[in-house]
Amino acid sequence: MHIFSIIVLVLLALVLLVLGGYLLVGSIAFRLVLSKNARAKKLSSKHMAQNLDEYMIDLEWWKNYPFEVLSVTSFDNFKLCGHYLNNNSDKLAILVHGYGGDFRETFNYAKYFYKRGYDLLAIESRAHGASEGDMITMGYLEHKDICSWIELSITKNPNYKIALFGLSMGASAVCMSLGDNLPENVKCAISDCGFDNAFRQLCYIYSHRLHISAKPFMNFFNGYLKRVKGLDLKQADVVKALKKSQLPVLFIHGKEDKFVPTEMVYRLSEVLPEGRKEVYIVEGAKHAMSYPTSPKEYEHRLNRFLDKYYM
């Protein structure tokens, strides 16, 4: 009996040790990648600031117009922040930034839509900027937040014809929202350098950087997220959402994108039939740099796409 008790205690200790290690490693990975103050997010924010400076994006432009700060409460009770500009239009562009960014990342796109006569709504995704939230979900919950912003927009103007624009993670969130039962006000979407699936995207990033397959660790990490955080990155599936959509999409991607591989844009676009999609690959453009790299052609492609759908 004494020996049996010792064996049981040893086995119990081993189980607790393994469980403790599982929770510890999962918790560290979460804090590094998906928490509100994630180190990876801070690095992306720093990179965004460098891009804004490198391409001399006029941050003062925003201050010269009477933007109104709006808020909406997410389905899970977080206060989200958005910046709205009334341009006396029945057309609205909802702009969604990428991972680690904030509303400033959409300045160039906001200026484009403003000159085209649109009202503007540049949102800040959960756990970014002034928006609340304790977890970045790579579009899984962010796309539901976009739906909340659409509903709020229609209360301001029931006649709005809405174009959705997303950059990087924001593009994937926009495309995922197209799989929901959106109101008829939403007419089209523009996806600039979005990924096809959050799990695949994180596997790619860390495999590319570590030069080894990150899939075993990502399976471990995703298991932790499902059990502890209620998040399954594999369910952040843009392809699956697009299959449910009836809306036209303009897909844009930089040919030199090493962060979200260019091949992903073809996985996304092949889901939609001809006549409801356009694909624009920008030569020489790195991740999220298609517009600064080729501004005239970029605007030409946007104009052509929006004109086609009377937007």
SSE topology:
Blueprint (H helix, E strand, L loop, with lengths): L1 H32 L5 H16 L5 H4 L4 E6 L5 E7 L5 E6 L10 H9 L3 E6 L17 H15 L4 E7 L1 H9 L8 E7 L5 H13 L4 H15 L8 H5 L6 E6 L8 H7 L7 E6 L7 H4 L1 H14 L3
Parallel strand pairs: 3-4, 3-5, 5-6, 6-7, 7-8
Antiparallel strand pairs: 1-2, 2-4
Write up what this structure looks like.
- The longest helix is centred in the first third of the chain and has 32 residues, at 2-33.
- The termini are far apart.
- Residues 8-22 have low confidence and may be disordered.
- With 311 residues, the chain is an alpha/beta fold.
- Helix 1 crosses helix 8 (215-229) and helix 5 crosses helix 6 (169-177).
- The chain has twelve helices and eight strands.
- It is globular.
- It has helices at residues 2-33, 39-54, 60-63, 107-115, 142-156, 169-177, 198-210, 215-229, 238-242, 263-269, 290-293, 295-308, and strands at 68-73, 79-85, 91-96, 119-124, 161-167, 186-192, 249-254, 277-282.
- An eight-stranded mixed beta sheet has the order 1-2-4-3-5-6-7-8, sandwiched between helices.
Keywords:
single chain, alpha/beta, 311 residues, 8 strands
Write out the strand line-up for the largest beta sheet, numbering strands in chain order.
1-2-4-3-5-6-7-8
Q: Mean pLDDT score, rounded?
A: 88
> Oligomerization state of this entry?
single chain
Q: Give the fraction of residues assigned to helices.
A: 40-55%
Report the sheet-strand fraction.
15-25%
Taking the alpha carbons of the first and last residues, their distance comes to: 80 Å
Low-confidence sequence ranges: 8-22
Number of helices: 12
Task: Write down the Rg.
Answer: 21 Å
SSE pattern: HHHEEEHEHEHEHHHEHEHH
Number of strands: 8
Give me the secondary-structure category: alpha/beta
Largest sheet: 8 strands, mixed
Shape: globular
